[in-house]
Structures are given as structure tokens and as C-alpha cells.
Amino acid sequence: MDTNTKAHLVGGPRDGSTIDTGGDALLEVEIDGMMHRYVRTTKQHGEDGTVYNYDGMVAPDGGEPGVEDPEARVASGEGGRGGPRREALSCGSAPAGHG
Question: Mean pLDDT across the stretch 7-35?
């Protein structure tokens, strides 16, 4: 069985480009000092290429100062799964109009 080694990039700064790859599940392309990630899909492009979707941009060292500070997030009480912070109702209280 032949291995597909051409990646057709969809989205991001290299949208529409085709590059040679080893068939990796994740491609990282460096552009202007930032890493742009493309993730392999199950779709084929033509007879000799695999489609890779754009997954976003990251700094080569893994993060940018000030963008994400886990300690600050925990200290502010906005931890958890990334959703909005919810206040719990105390026992015996009901929302307005229900009671």
C-alpha cells in the first residue's frame, strides 16, 4: 500500500497550498516566527493528497505572555471548563416567579 505524502492545506495563511509531508497527523508550518497548525482529516484531495484543516496559530515556545496565565485565572475565580462563572442558589431559595 502506498502512503499519501502530499498535504492539501485548507484554511489559514497557506490555504490552497500543497506540501510534501510524511503523513503526520499534525503539521506545523512556521511563518513569521509563529507556528501554524494543520490537522489531518480523512478526506482526500485528488488522487495523491490528504486534506489538512487549519487549527490555529501558536508561539513556538508554547505561549505568549499575558495571553493565558493559569494562576491569574484561578485567583480571579474564573477557573473550570472555560464557560461563564455561575452562582449557585442557596438551599430554600427559588428564582423569581417560582415559589
Answer: 91
